[in-house]
Amino acid sequence: MAAHGVTATDVSNALSVNNFISAAGRTQGQMVTVDITAATGLHTVNEFRDLVIKSVNGAIVRLGDIANVTLGAENYDVAVRFDGKSAVFMSIKVAPNANLLSVANNIRKVFRHRASVASGSQRPYCFDATDYVNIPLKRW
What we know:
Blueprint: H1 8-18, E1 21-28, E2 33-39, H2 45-49, E3 52-56, E4 59-62, H3 63-66, E5 81-82, E6 85-86, H4 100-117, H5 130-133
Antiparallel strand pairs: 1-2, 3-4, 5-6
């Protein structure tokens, strides 16, 4: 990194500026309302590899120039177990303009399909926060 004139702060700043989703607002006409989102999220290894970190003396320094970019876990220090068996923890964050219940229903469909195909799969998920959204409001 030093050979390219790049610091860890440069890398951190480039990643934080170029990898987010934001609800920018909405535009409304007489017959149409459109929600506007700014999605600058990076999705593939190649997109991260091509991320511009800095321009030094007219030369562009990309993340792939200063780092090995691979797909992997954010943290390898955690092991997940459920009912005494190895499990996988997956957190799903809904985009600002997405319908939470539609996303949850589509994820359940995918898991049901995968569980029927994969041998040894038992319970696709053990906690679903949308269960609380579906509880009808009680009158006091």
